[in-house]
Amino acid sequence: MTILSSSSEASSETSETGTSSGDPSGRKPWCRWLPRSYLLVLVINATATLLLWPAEAQYPDWWYNVPPVCPLKMRLFFFGLMLSSLGAGCVAAFLVRRAEASGHTKWACGYAIINWIQAMLGSLGMDNPDTGNCRYGVIPDRVSGGKIWYWALALCRLLLYLVASFWMQTLIASRLDLLEQSSNRNYRSSCFRKLMWAQVFGAAVVLLPIAGMIHEIITDSCIGSIIFVTSTISLIAIGGITLLCNWAASIVAICSFGKSYSELRKICRLAEANEAPISARSSLRRARRFAGLQGLGVSFSLVFTVLLVPARVVSIAVANYDSYDALTVVLFLIQAFDALGNAVAVLLLSGSHRMAKVERSQGSHRSWKVEKAEHSRNQQTSHEDVNWTRKVEELSMRGMTLRSLLQFYQENLPSMPDWKYAPREHKTRDVVRRAIIPLTSREECAFSVSVFNKDGPKRAQVMVTHNWGNSFSDLLAAVLSDALQDLLAKMGRLDHTYWICAFAVNQHISICHSNPYDRDPFTNQLHPVCHCNSTNIIDSDGRSASSEINKFDDMMRLLATTGGCRQVIAVDKPLDLFRRAWCVAEIAEAKRLQMDQSLKLWSKATLQGRARTLENLDVRDMRASSEKDKELILGKIQDVDDFNAKLQVLIFDPKSGLVATWNAMDSLQQIGEVGRLIRWGLADAGCWSNREAEASSETSETGQSSGDPSVRKPWCRWLPRSYLLVLVINATATLLLWPADGLDPCPLKMRLSFFGLMLSSFGAGCVAAFLVRRAEASGHTKWACGYAIINWIQAMLGSLGMNNPLWGYWQCTYGVIPDRDSGGKIWYSALACCRLLLYLVASFWMQTLIASRLDLLEQSSNRNYRSGCFRRLMWAQVFGAAVALLPIACLLFCFSVFFVFLSAIVCTAGWISLIAIGGITLLCNWAASIVAICSFRKSYSELRRICRLAEANEAPISARSSLRRARRFAGLQGLGVSFGLVFTLLLVPARVFSMLLPYGYDSLQVVLFLIQAFDALGNAVAVLLLSGSHRMAKVESSQGSQCGSKVEKPEHSRNQQTSHEDVNWTRKVEELSMRGMTLRSLLQFYQENLPSMPDWKYAPREHKTRDVVRRAIIPLTSSEECAFSVSAFNKEGPKRAQVMVTHNWGNSFSDLLAAVLSDALQECSFSLPAELLQEECAFLQDLLAKMGRLDDTYWICAFAVNQHISICHSNPYDRDPFTNQLHPVCQCNSTNIIDSDGRSASSEINKFDDMMHLLATTGGCRQVIAVDKPLDLFRRAWCVAEIAEAKRLQMDQSLKLWSKATLQERARTLENLDVRDMRASSDKDKELILGKIQDVDDFNAKLQVLIFDPKSGLVATWNAMDSLQQIGEVGRLIRWGLADAGSGKVWKAWDGHN
Q1: Quick one: which H or E segment has residue 79?
Q2: pLDDT tens, position by position, 1137-1164
Q3: Of the candidates 834, 826, 814, 809, which has an alpha carbon nearest to the alpha carbon of residue 998?
Q4: 1035 near 777, Cβ under 8 Å?
Q5: Dihedral sign from CA coordinates of 128, 131, 133, 136
Q6: What share of the chain is helix, strand, coil (3-state, %, to 5)?
Q7: 566-570/1139-1143 β-pairing
Q8: pLDDT tens digit string along 108-125?
Q9: Cα–Cα distance between 782 and 929 in angstroms, integer?
């Protein structure tokens, strides 16, 4: 155990530098974007360009009558090729920082550097080395011996071409190999390799004819020489065959990547057609996109590489002849695209565009070499002890096959008497105490050698290091993840053997008779001990030959040296494994023995979010099962500080550490991911095909579903109809209005300005077209779409604004518009007035959009962003524009009257008033713009501060990712608004100057043109960002034949069989409406009453609402025999309900309460409140108190209905999820009311409709629909009846889901709902509900409209994640960040929420 930066050194290093090798994101901000490698590439390319810039070649006078001139095209070609080499160099620089990730990325980086050098040398290849007109900078003239240099450079280029070609093909071959291994499919990898080596052989053989030709040239006997002719023919033949092999290999590679893409595309379609979960489809689409990009990159590279050889030859032959300009341009493009294509290909093949930079080790961790494995038995134990050696060999033979492990999980574990296994809650220690020990108590042996292991014990191939505090299901999943590199049964992996101490160690001589701390997570009672006849061995000094837990080191050495055993490290989610002394000792010993180690994590986010918690680990602070075990481990370590330092190296070493190894997600693993998804997709195809026949037939007929808009015909996805319409309109306007000559020739600058402004208007039109398809998402996106259309029209009219309508006739006329001498002046003046009007309308329109953002930002963040100030300035501008109509009317009057004196007075007053009012309005516009920019800047600054605080406090990676995303969005919106407002402010003076300066001032007119062009584009970008539509999918029309129906006026909905004059009925309805509970009371019940129930422990993740009713609400109110809301436990007493909650009793009670809290917290989903409710309930209550929401009242039937006159005396089906026993019934003296016809005035469950009507008409009550994860709420008759009644009563309805993915994954299961097939607590309840429905088919149709209507349906309403909600997300994160205040409570819950 003498293996494995001292903690003090690492700590000081971290404190000094602010960085850590465990979390590379914690480096200095200025280092993150420091482009040192890119700067080096730029310097080298710029130096090469200056040193090699083409100049005129010098030849003797008798060669040319006129000295040769280096053509301009050669200089342009040289510069273009140098630019392409700069692009290739930037890719090489990008890969250099990621080369440390793996050997493969180093190989890709080497190719990128070779390609960069080849591209730079290629810039000299457009001229003939013999008779070219140019010389390249410092290279000598051809007459001064430079010809040798040019030929040498040509040979270097050829050599680099061959090397790069072989290098690229090895990269492609490695991809095809891994693609075959991971997918178990044939992708012609061996064929490609044969062709690759055939090219290498051809390149080697071709050296013989080349040597023969060189020999003949040197001896000056090449003309007519047989050797020369033979060598030339051989060179052409061998080179041609080699080139054919190159082409064939390229075709094989392109076809192979195309095959993988096609298979993934087929699997994606199958997954979509068979309702695969959204996460699976997302992974498939991502893999398909990556496979397509790699195939495209490889194709691009190979095609241009194949064309490069003839391009080089032709360029040498014809480059200096002016008659081949077009061909020379083609050859130049081939060379340029070859360099860029190879760079893009190696970037995609390496996968480094998805990888983070690999940072150098920041700490002072000591570099150490793994020592040779030595016998690691405790030195106090004799090496000659035969019993010891026999026990070690016996332990090494106690591996279990995967078949046996799965059999234990499927058969033995669920069948344990008096104990029910809960996968999410029970740890490995619970399984040992309640399953492994009881099953083996009769034999008193390890499970692996008991009769329950039908395959018998095997020699271990893999040793699993794990934490007994980890979930047992996670442990088994980690083992399966190691085996599922291939499919288990098909690939024979079921016989792989794993050594797991829980199964391999005989617990009956270790721990079975004592249990000081292992408790059941639900009952909180100690697990029972075993009553077998064995004796637990107490090994205080680690010398006992009978004990098994002191021989792990020797057993690992035996397995490593004789069987090539490897180690799987099954890490739990909190990474507590690295704080367990036994686990760390096993990891260190495996490293010392040079065993292959494989880390198995829940997810990459687990490592990224918690890696920094592993810094400065100290073995002295680690935990063990007992102090004796810890002393035994520490006794084997000679130098604890050195061990701690080497442990940091083992975990964080940037090359070979466990973290670096797991993080090496290079392109091989990316391609492996592609193959893995192909394998899983093909394996799962049979399961998908066995789905319900109705869903299959419907999908096959329509090809799409209203529940999942992503399933639509592929050709519709990119159909650019709206963009095509914009293009046609802009092109038609350009042709009809193209500037023509006036009395004077129309200057070229006017035509260019017109064309440029038309192009900018086309960009604005494309944004408008983009927003049109997303306008149905919400009213706000419609408003944004309207502004985009106005901006587009204004931009098209602005293209006519560079010419003065009064005296511009000297220059240009615009197409079909009449000449100014023919009455066209009125047209131009009218167009100018239209532009002014559109400017005013668009300016007000934009400001209303900004005002709505600031309003929502204030509401969602509870902060002041000067929304009121902005609105006052906005309305001041409207008032100014209205008042400005008076002086404009005066000016029109003065132009029409003939009284000179009166006209002069009116004109003067009008001009003064117009200038004053216009100036004040413009100042208000500027002030409003400044307020808006400062407000968005304030939100960005606050989010930036919260981000820094979250990073400093080591918030989980998901929380930091959400904060960065929100910060980026806030910054983009602020930037877009600033861009649009600034150019809009400059537009007025730009218009004035464009009219006043028709002649001269060319530079000023260019500035004015740019202002107008950027104003149109800036406004388009601003509205796009403000609408948030760039993050939204297109809104599809309703696909089904659902009936469109209008909501009827609310009428009294009491059961028609009940008398309206029944006073008792009315009194009961009013009484029910007064049984709301405040949030404070609900949280008090959750925090105080629920945990204190005797003989029953509440489990938030498992217990449903029905369990809470049976085991908490009914027992607590049994003495009073009343509803909980009117009992003494509700200290605030019943209240009039403000919100009615519709929920499913089969839903988790914690999720129900989280949905209620999400409504108070203004959250769309309740996953975050659910996490906070379990971990930080007091924090949540304080936050609600600060928001003033604890007094909000909610009507929840479980609390509002008196269960003692409803269900308390009978329980036909409600069972405890752990014991599987029926919940006990109540022993109170009340009588359950049996209301068979729904007429009973005493019953409370038949009056929901009337109560809802009373609340809706008198108190403005709204409805919250707390939907469970499987969406079973929509299959419960009572819940659907409440939703339909609330819709009929026009109550505001709010859907609360666990997450958006819940809806996306399961929305299609809600199609074709039929109320006749829905479930209820009893058949009588169902009959009562159906009896209220006059036409069931019409009800079903309207139910589909209620759920799926694309404008007002529940799904459409919840899915309307437009920019108002996006800005709300920004404000929400600001609110949560300020509430967290660096405590980390919110971000810890955010991690689970994501």
Answers
A1: helix 72-96
A2: 889 999 988 888 988 998 888 888 877 7
A3: 809
A4: yes
A5: positive
A6: 60, 5, 35
A7: unpaired
A8: 888 888 889 888 888 776
A9: 23
